[in-house]
Amino acid sequence: MVDNLQVEKSGQIIEGEIVMKLKTIGIVVMTASLLLGLSQTTIAREPPVAKMVQIEGQVEYTRNGKRWNPVRRTKYLFPGYKIKTGANGSGKLINQQTGESQELGSDSEIEVTIDGIALVSGNLTEPQSESVSVFQSLMNKFAKAQRYTTVRRSLTSNDDKVCDNKVRTIRKISLSPAHPDLVWRNACPEFSYRLIIDGAATDISAQSTSEMIRHTISGIEPGEHSYRVEVLDKDGTVYIPRKDSTFVWVSGKDEKEMVSTLDSLNDDVFMQTNYLEEKGMYVAAMDAYRDYFSENPDDNDMRPLLIQSYNDLKLTNLKQSEARLYNAVLEEDY
Question: How would DSSP label each residue in 5-45?
């Protein structure tokens, strides 16, 4: 038996899904705890009450009235936001609770409240029936994502230097020719890995500067495959998970159908990633979120969705880093 071999204990924690009411989602929570040497803080926000689509010309928004940022694509609007349009600006607003739409004209300004859209100046049409509302699923998703925004900081600075060699992977995931990567947490700069798929092993060198390990899968037949990630140091194997995970390789035909559906969702990152997650394409969803925040770093109120994506993929280091950023921006706003 290899020295220092650690085997993951069996047992699964089944979390009950908690559907939070709209009024409770917006409670601001600030918690400080010294229990077990951990400090925890978090601030919760309400889910969006509307989204803006079909954006034309100059359109800007502000979260706190201090700085205005351009709106270039589908934008989810949270309570407290203000939107203004320039001489050539316009857009369509869709209420997430009723599904009704309103047209916002040029040289106009609106304010987003918990009850909906309020016109400050300019032109805003009367509400019109648009589509079936997805508000309940949207509210539930944001409520769930808020659970992962808690920041846990060790009170002992030396703890940050200790590597956790227990690398866990998502239990089931879908991959495809366009999205062929498996990902997992980079446990320690000097650790290397052994990826075993259907009993066949591939050694992966240490990647000291990588925020996560990505490995591209190829030459796989459509269908379900088992995999696990073992962790090694210079002396040998230091961690083997007790149970294998699985991935489903999506056929080219099925992927074309997914691409068609994604195209129909235009540039709505929430609807796109929600669809990808429903299909088990968690890495593809994470990449879509990362691309979105690369282009829209100021859209902090959407950040819990990326934090939850990291949580789903067991990327705990990235989850905590993103949660710290999210809470820091909220503290600045308040």
Answer: -EEPPP----PPP----HHHHT--------GGGEEEE----
In contact, 207 and 239? CB cutoff 8 Å: no
Burial of 137 (0-12, 13-18, 19+ CB in 10 A): exposed
Contact call for residues 183 and 283 (beta carbons, < 8 A)? yes
Of 275, 314, 310, residue with least CA distance to 171 = 314
Specify which residues 225 forms β-bridges with. 247
Look up residue 179 and give its two tokens.
């999205």
Query: Which residue, 54, 132, 126, is CA-closest to 90?
Result: 54
pLDDT tens figures, 53-106: 999 999 999 988 888 999 999 999 999 999 999 999 999 999 988 889 999 999
Tracing tokens 């075993």 back to the chain, one arrives at 196
Nearest to 2 by CA among 234, 212, 268, 280: 234
Residue 26's pLDDT is: 40
- Look up the pTM and report it: 0.81
Q: How far apart are CA 87 and CA 71, in angstroms?
A: 15
- What's the distance, CA 158 to chain centroid? 29
DSSP three-state, residue 149: coil
Residue-level pLDDT at 16: 36
Rg of the chain, C-alpha, whole Å = 22
3-state secondary structure of 177: coil
Q: Does position 118 have pLDDT exceeding 80, yes or no?
A: yes
Provide φ and ψ at 285, rounded to 5°: -65, -45
Structure token digits, residue 236: 């040998």
- Check: CB of residue 63 under 8 Å from CB of residue 300: yes
Q: Residue 232: which of 272, 190, 261, 264 has the closest Cα?
A: 190
For residue 234, the SS3 value is: coil
Give me the numbers of helices (H) and strands (E) for the chain, helices first please: 7, 21
Q: Distance between CA atoms of 313 and 294, rounded to whole angstroms?
A: 19
